[in-house]
Amino acid sequence: VQLQACGGGLVQPGGSLRLSCVASGSIFPIALMGWYRQAPGKERKLVASITSGDTTNYADFVNGRFTISRDNAKNTVYLQMNGLKPEDTAVYYCNAQFKQNWWGQGTQVTVSS
pLDDT category, 88, cuts 50, 70, 90? Predict the structure, then answer.
């Protein structure tokens, strides 16, 4: 499985970004998909996840600002991020889990004025 993430960039506080992650392979519809992030000098943390049945889970720091979704027909998982804050600055990684873990290459999100 290969994961290709995109959609990061520089945005002002309060702005929005939409991350996308396209997965190769046939496991996507049955995999648990997630977005993680890692800020400089900090450990990688779960941001949000979505099961094959569209059950979602969010980190407390999301606080209703982000939405994870998936399109199984396109093998794609999305992370819509609204109300971005400087503390959301990090490299965001796409993750797939089905009997093992796969990681994408990461996409940089920078929130700054």
Answer: very high
State how far the Cα of 23 lies from the Cα of 1, in Å rounded to an integer. Answer: 7
Detail the DSSP E strand segments found in the chain: 3-6, 9-11, 17-23, 32-38, 45-50, 56-58, 66-71, 76-81, 90-97, 101-103, 107-111
Residue 98 confidence class, pLDDT cut points 50, 70, 90: very high
Distance CA 72, CA 95 (A): 15
Burial zone of 2 (CB within 10 Å; 0-12 exposed, 13-18 middle, 19+ buried): exposed
Which pLDDT belongs to residue 100? 92
